[in-house]
Write a structure and sequence with these properties.
8-stranded mixed beta sheet; 4-stranded antiparallel beta sheet; homodimer; alpha/beta; disordered N terminus; about 450 residues
Chain lengths: ~450, ~450
Amino acid sequence: MRCLICLAVFAVMFRPAAVRAADAPKKNVVLLIADDMGLDLGCYGNTRIKTPNLDALAKNGVRFSNAFATVSSCSPSRASLYSGLFSHSNGQYGLAHADHNFHSKPTVKSLPRLLNDAGYRTAILGKNHVIPKEVYPWGQEIPVNGRSVFLVAEKARQFISEVGDRPFCLVVGYADPHRAARGFGNETKYPNVPEVRYDAANVELPYHLPDQPDARQDLADYYQSATRCDHGVGLMLKVLDDAKKTDSTLVIFISDNGIPFPGAKTTLYDAGVHLPLIVSSPVQKKRGRANLAMVSFVDVMPTILDWAGVKAPPELPGRSLLPILDEQNPTGWDVVYGSHQFHEVTMYYPMRMVRTRTHKYLLNLAHQLEFPFASDIYNSPTWQGVLKRGDKMLGQRSVESFLHRPHEELYDLTKDPNELKNLAGDPAQAKVLDEMRKQMRAWQEKTKDPWVVKYTHE
Amino acid sequence: MRCLICLAVFAVMFRPAAVRAADAPKKNVVLLIADDMGLDLGCYGNTRIKTPNLDALAKNGVRFSNAFATVSSCSPSRASLYSGLFSHSNGQYGLAHADHNFHSKPTVKSLPRLLNDAGYRTAILGKNHVIPKEVYPWGQEIPVNGRSVFLVAEKARQFISEVGDRPFCLVVGYADPHRAARGFGNETKYPNVPEVRYDAANVELPYHLPDQPDARQDLADYYQSATRCDHGVGLMLKVLDDAKKTDSTLVIFISDNGIPFPGAKTTLYDAGVHLPLIVSSPVQKKRGRANLAMVSFVDVMPTILDWAGVKAPPELPGRSLLPILDEQNPTGWDVVYGSHQFHEVTMYYPMRMVRTRTHKYLLNLAHQLEFPFASDIYNSPTWQGVLKRGDKMLGQRSVESFLHRPHEELYDLTKDPNELKNLAGDPAQAKVLDEMRKQMRAWQEKTKDPWVVKYTHE
C-alpha cells in the first residue's frame, strides 16, 4: 500500500515545469474539504502524523498559516464557503440534517449558482451538508462513501472525463476525520486504501485534552482517519494529472472545523477555527512558502469567483486570495471574524469573534447557558473519560470555565496563545477591549447580524 | 355598513333545516384562521367586543371551551394544524420568514399532501407562513391582503366556483388581529369592510396587562382588528351558502396563538394558548352548545382527515373531534400538551407544557435566559408604556417573574387561573408535581422530543 502513497506524492511533486507557466489558462477548480481536521498536518508542524500528500501540495502551492473558519460547525462552515457569507447572514445557523433541519436563506447567491450561470460544470462529490438544493444547485451531487477515498478519486475521474473541455468546479467532501457512529471508521476496510495506524503513546496532545490513555487512543484513531483523507488528496491530484488538468486547475484544500474533541469543534477558540488552508494555483510564481496573511473562509468563494472570472456579489464580505498568493506577509490582512449560533438545534449558544494577530475578543450572547456539547463529542472516549474520572481539568483549561463562560472574553495571544486567561475584566486592557467591541459592532452592523438588530424592527 | 354584517349573520343563522340533515355528504372543508386572536369573542364571554358572525357560527355549531394551541407562535402553531404534530416533531421550530427561516421537516406527511392524494382540491388563501412548499403542497396559494376581508371572500368565491363538484379544502389565513408595522392596520380603508371602532375606556382588560391609557387604546385597536376578522368570517359563510356548499362543508374557525401583548403570545400561559375553536358540521345533531373536552390543535388535522375519509398517519398524536361534536363533556379528553422552541430565531426559549383541567406544569429548558420578546410585542404601545413608566407589575404578574422564570412551574388552576403562584417548590404539591413530570416525560419520549434524547445518540 505504501507504494500507492508514493505514487500520489510523486505525481504532485514532479509535475513538469511547463505546467506551472504563468500564462496557463485559469479555468477549473477543485475544492477538497476535510471533515473536522485541525492543524494536524506535517506541513503545519505536526511531527507525529503522516500527511505526505498534503505536505506535497503545500510545497507545490502556498500554505496559509493564519486561516480561520468563520464558525466551527460543519453545515454553517460549509455554507460560509459556498455562500461567502457569515452564518448569521446566510441563514445556515446550524446542522442541515435530521431534527436540526437548518436551511440557508433563499436570497443567497451561492457559488454553484454563480458558476452554473457562468457556464461551469459544477459537482459535489461526497459530503454536502448544506440545504436547500434550490440555493445550492450543484450540477451533480455524486454520492459516495467519503472514507473510501480510492472510490472518491475514481468518481472524480469519471466526472472530469465526462466534462471534457468545459470548465468545471468539483467540490470533494471527505468523510475523514469525522467521528463515525463508533470511532473514526477505522474498523472498516476500504478498497485500495492503505491502513496507517498510530501509537497512542506517540501523538501530539493539544493543550485542551487530558493526558490520559483514552484521550491518546482517541487522538491516535483520529490521526489514522486524517491520514486516510491525506491519501485521498494524493489520489485526487493524480486524477487531475492523468486528465491533464493540472495546468488549468486551482486546487484548494481546507477543513470545515476543528477536531471533534472537547475544546475544539463548536468553539471559537483557535483550536476550533484555526485550520489548514492550502492553495495551489498553476499560475503562482512562488511555491512552498507559508503566507502569514490572516484570511477567513469567507475569502474562499471570492477567490474561486476571481479565478473563474465571475464578478462577486457586492454583499460578500471576503476578498480574493489570488493577488496575495505569491506574498508572505501582505499588508491589510490582519483581522478575521467569527459567528456561531448552533451546531445541533438543541445547542443554542450564539457567539461572535474578532481575532487579530495579537488578540481575540469573544462575545457569548447566551452565556447564562451551559456551553452545549455536540453529541459525538459528548459520547467520545475522551469526554466520557473526563466524566468517569471526575476530572477538574480539560487539559490546561478547567472544566468549569469551559462549561460556564462570561459574557465577554479577551485574550492576549502573544502571551496566552491557548486562550486561558480572560482579560476582559482587566483595567489595563480597557482600551483594547473598547476598540475590539467597536470593531465587532461595526462588523455586525455591516453584515446585518439579526442578533444585533433585535428590537429595532419588526 | 351595518347592513353588511346583518346580512352575513342572517346567512349563518337561518340556514334551512334541510341543510342540517344527518345524511348530508361529508365532503368539503373550510378552515378559517385568525391571526393572534385570543378568547375575545362574544360567544366566549367577552361582553365588550362585537363578533356577531363568530357568535352565529358557534350557535350553529359547537364551541370548544377548552381548546389549546400546542404553541403560541404563528408558524409553529400553523405547522401543528397542517402536520398534526407538535413543533418539536415537525421541525417548524420558529417563524418561517426572513432571517428566521425555520422549515418543517421533509418527512412530514402534511394535510395538503394527504388531501391532494385523496383527490381533493386544496388551496390556502392569504397567510400561510409555513415552509417549504414541498412539505405543504397546497394546490393553490392565493395571495391577498388578509385584512381586506371582502376581497378575501371574493377570492374564495372564485376558487369554489372553479372547483365545481370536486371536494375541496380551503384554508383562509386572515391577517387580523395581528399587529401591522404600525398599530393593527386600522388606518387603512378596506373596500366593503365596515370600520368598527372601540372606546379605550370600554375594553375588558386581561389580568396580564396594565390598566393604563396606552394599553387600553392598544387593546381597543386590537378589538377593531378582531371585529374586521369576524366580518370576514360572515362574508365567507355567505359565499359558502351562495355556492350551495353549506350542507357539504365542515367549517372550522380557530386562531393560531394568543393576543400580541406581553403575557400572552409566545408564552405557554393560558393567555397564550387557550384559544377559540368553533366547529360547524352539517351532520352534527346538537347545535349552539359549549363542549368542555380538553382538545388540542393537533386534533384538527385528524378531524379534517376523518371528515374527508382519509386515514391519518399512525404517528399523529391527535384524535378526530367528529365523534364528540354532539357531546358536552366527553370522557377521556382531560389533558393537553404544549411545546415551544422559538418565535424569532433570536428568541430561543424551549418550553414544555402539560395542562390538565386542574393543573398546569411548565418546564423552562433554558430558564437561565431572560424570557425573550417578540419584536412586535416589544415595540407595542403597551410594553413601551411599561418600560417608560418603569412599572414593576405587568398587570397582576411582576415584570421580574415574567422575565426570569424558574426551571419548573406548577399552577393549581382551580385556585389560581391566572398562573401567578408557582407551586413547584411546595412540599404539599410534591405528588402532583411528580405525576406531571412523569406525564411530560412519557409524552416527550413518545413524540421523540429532540430536547430529551440529546446525548443519547449521535
